[in-house]
Amino acid sequence: MDDNREDSLEKSAQNSKQEEEKGPDAVDRIECTGIPNGGSGSPAAVRLYKRRWLVVFLFSSYSLSNAYQWIQYGIISNIIVKFYSVEAFAVDWLSMVFMLTYIPFIFPVSWLLDKKGLRVTALLANALNCAGTWIKVASARPDLFGVTMLGQFASSLAQVFILGMPSRLASVWFGADEVSTACSIGVFGNQMGIAIGFLVPPILVPNVDDMNELAHHIRIMFYISAGVATLIFVLVVIVFQEKPEIPPTQAQVQARSISPDEYSYMASILRLLRNKPFMLLVVSYGLNVGCFYAVSTLLNRMIIEHYPNEEVNAGRIGLTIVIAGMVGSLICGIWLDKTKTYKQTTLVVYLLSLTGMLVYAFTLNLGHLWVVFITAGVLGFFMTGYLPLGFEFAVELTYPESEGTSSGLLNCSAQIFGIIFTICQGKIIDKWGTLPGNIFLCIFLLIGAVLTGFIKSDLRRQKANLQSMVHTASVSISACAA
């Protein structure tokens, strides 16, 4: 029996040595787990590949391109209203179509992500995103508002394939101590796209009265976004990989051991709907992110009401919100990897988002733009920084369910509340002004914070990794004792 154990250990060592010699995509770390490999009882290796950083960078890039298109109209809404001769509410729908499209399509897209994987989903996302940008190139005429809406619809379909991927990509490619950071990087790309969407359109499209000149500037904006989207599409086709040959964590080893025939998408959805802590998170996440969508969509209108002819500064304020949020996202992701305090961190950040929204609401009309920059930055740091917290907390509460499915439900809630809040806040601003509109959002942030406090912190993924580590340690001790 001792001879068999020695033979097994020797074969494992030889296999590890062979894997290390595979070339430039080589391993950063190899570990042994206590998970049976093929039922043979021999330990299965887990590995971190350097390629994981390239994969998450590519994802962040095409998420950036898509998020830019979501906000590129809203931040110059007064100019778009003039160019296409439509009402402000019609221009608001150029942003809200992203939210509306997500709701019916998220379930088939989540099913596709589970069945076909990351690469097919990435290819479809980029094909739709690229198509949307080129349709909009053809819409730079005052009588073609319908065409620009069609292009925005194609881009909004691409978003359905993108928003649920960060947590899934992080779990498939990254180690147990990196997943929250990797998810933050994935969300980082989306936030960077929103930041560029706030900054660039007011610079590229000045508020001029000559319609031909305005059409020229809008066409340039569309050509730039189409060129970037096309380049990223080509890179994804060439480089983007489905998954590493060897899984990065014990949790992924277990996930891969589940046969596709044993997995039912509808059964997974039903299990998630019966998961009370997760459903509380779905509602609270939707309230927070829905408020962010409303603020982003209506930012131009709020700033212009108090600071006329400040379109460029409105864009810069939006940029400040998102850049601060990107910093907040990365800090929160690193903090989660270090502490694993998912509920506590989520609740604190939620309460600080509410505080930031209150401060922003009561200082917007003071007449000092520098004050708005500061308060908007504080709001963005916590409200946008909340995004990866929600994703990662959801994965912990729902493991071993598909990350794409749990993320999809979170985002579906966010889109529903985003549409409701954008329409309602827009109407309130038109009738009573910006302060009542922002107080409206504060009320729902308070409700979301209370719901977050009731979430039971059942960290299932952490338990799975811990159990595997304990099992590995016990096997190692037994081997040494023998």
Automatic annotation (TrEMBL):
Query: Where are its TM segments located?
Result: 53-73, 93-113, 179-200, 220-240, 278-296, 316-335, 347-363, 369-389, 409-429, 435-455
A Pfam family matched by this chain, by name? MFS_1
Annotated region described as Disordered, given as residue ranges: 1-29
InterPro entries cross-referenced by the UniProt entry: FLVCR1-2_SLC49-like, MFS, MFS_dom, MFS_trans_sf
Q: Which residues form the Major facilitator superfamily (MFS) profile domain?
A: 54-460
Any one Gene Ontology molecular-function term assigned to this protein's record = choline transmembrane transporter activity
Q: Superkingdom of the source? A: Eukaryota
The question of whether Ubl conjugation is a record keyword is answered with no
Annotated membrane topology is:
Multi-pass membrane protein
Q: Name one GO cellular component term.
A: plasma membrane
Give its localization. Answer: Cell membrane; Endoplasmic reticulum membrane; Mitochondrion membrane
Q: Can you state which reaction this protein catalyses? A: choline(out) = choline(in); ethanolamine(in) = ethanolamine(out); heme b(in) = heme b(out)
Q: Explain the purpose of this protein.
A: Choline uniporter that specifically mediates choline uptake at the blood-brain-barrier. Responsible for the majority of choline uptake across the blood-brain-barrier from the circulation into the brain. Choline, a nutrient critical for brain development, is a precursor of phosphatidylcholine, as well as betaine. Also mediates transport of ethanolamine. Choline and ethanolamine transport is not coupled with proton transport and is exclusively driven by the choline gradient across the plasma membrane. Also acts as a heme b transporter.
What's the protein name? Feline leukemia virus subgroup C cellular receptor family, member 2a
Organism from which the protein derives:
Echeneis naucrates
